[in-house]
DNA sequence: TTAGCTGCAAAAGGTTTGCAAATTA
DNA sequence: TAATTTGCAAACCTTTTGCAGCTAA
């Protein structure tokens, strides 16, 4: 329905940071760039650290964690949990939810629209407003599902 | 539709343990009892440890963690993540999902049937079989939702 | 007797914190 | 200059692990 939104740029994110009274440092810029470079992936904080260190070797983990936290406060970035293990970060640009296979750990992105029926129902029945995803749904992907017979007609 | 299933008993769980070649120790019995005593709550491993230690003061955390893991392998217990922080354990008796308010951390239990529409859709569209919940859905409960006006007609 | 538990202590993994020094605006 | 960031190191929290001794069956 809606065309893909124009991707957010490094400068736009840095502007948001500036606007909030923040300062733009080399490390912060590199962190944002690392995030944009993986627009379509789910990166852990540790992976961001590595990406930043590939360019500036003396960056501390804590700095990256702090920058990610700040970006999250600004609403530019979100983190979510795909599974046990480290959280993954991504731009908060297009809402979507994740399915994670508990066997092969494959990650499937699914459009937010799919969930509106459910979230509407939860809203009506419980007055609960489901927000953007913080946790993935776990289960088995096609490949890992025990090969049961085809669904009958 | 279906009446509440008869609650599982301590002895039934211990039998399952025995059947799997396990041994019944005082600590294991106390762990199971602690779990049953909180049938309607979501207890962290730490809370189970405390409950067990209240009766037998020298129980090691690791023992309780190991017992919980064993019970999980037997399918008697599950753990799930309501939020950041420790996992919560409960009996794997009746399938349900949890909503957690990110503001007040209230936990709402919701019946599994509510999700069949969605899970069916995910099955059809992605060949993905959503399994019993491992993660909660996060959002805002009625009390914490910014008091917006009533939904217009 | 012997496979299976246990406590202890230590480590692991991911993230946060305190602080003085460095840097940005 | 004043406020914000930074690196470092240490702490944190939850969970796991190794191991020698203990115990249920």
Topology:
The structure is a homodimer of 153-residue chains.
Chain A: H1 10-19, H2 26-37, E1 43-44, H3 45-53, H4 61-73, E2 77-80, E3 88-91, E4 96-101, E5 107-111, H5 116-126, E6 129-130, E7 137-140
Helix pairs in contact in A: 2-3, 3-4
Chain A binds a DNA duplex (25 and 25 nucleotides) through helix 4.
Describe this structure in words.
- The structure is a homodimer of 153-residue chains.
- Chain A has 153 residues and is of the alpha+beta class.
- Chain A folds into 2 domains: 10-80, Arc Repressor Mutant, subunit A, CATH 1.10.10; 96-148, Dna Ligase, domain 1 (2-Layer Sandwich).
- Chain A has helices at 10-19, 26-37, 45-53, 61-73, 116-126, and strands at residues 43-44, 77-80, 88-91, 96-101, 107-111, 129-130, 137-140.
- The first copy, chain A, has a 3-stranded antiparallel beta sheet. The first copy, chain A, has a 3-stranded mixed beta sheet with strand order 5-4-7, with no helix packed on it.
- In chain A, helix 3 (45-53) crosses helix 4.
- Chain A is globular.
- Chain A starts with 9 loop residues before the first helix and ends in a 13-residue tail after the last strand.
- Residues 148-153 of chain A have low confidence and may be disordered.
- Chains A and B meet through helix 5, strand 6 and strand 7 of A and helix 5, strand 6 and strand 7 of B.
- Chain A binds a DNA duplex (25 and 25 nucleotides) through residues 18, 21-25, 27-28, 44-46, 58-63, 65-67, 69, 85-87.
């Amino acid at each position: 329905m809606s065309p893909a939104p124009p991707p957010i740029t490094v400068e736009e994110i840095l502007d948001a940071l500036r606007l909030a009274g923040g300062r733009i440092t080399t490390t912060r810029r590199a962190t944002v760039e690392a995030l944009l470079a993986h627009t379509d992936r789910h990166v852990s904080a540790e992976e961001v650290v590595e990406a930043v260190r590939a360019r500036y070797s003396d960056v501390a983990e804590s700095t990256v964690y702090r920058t990610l936290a700040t970006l999250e406060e600004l609403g530019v970035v979100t983190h979510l949990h795909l599974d046990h293990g480290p959280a993954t970060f991504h731009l908060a640009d297009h809402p979507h939810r994740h399915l994670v296979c508990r066997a092969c750990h494959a990650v499937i992105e699914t459009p937010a629209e799919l969930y509106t029926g459910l979230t509407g129902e939860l809203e009506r029945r419980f007055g609960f407003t489901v927000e953007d995803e913080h946790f993935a749904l776990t289960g088995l992907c096609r490949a890992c599902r025990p090969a049961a017979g085809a669904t009958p007609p």
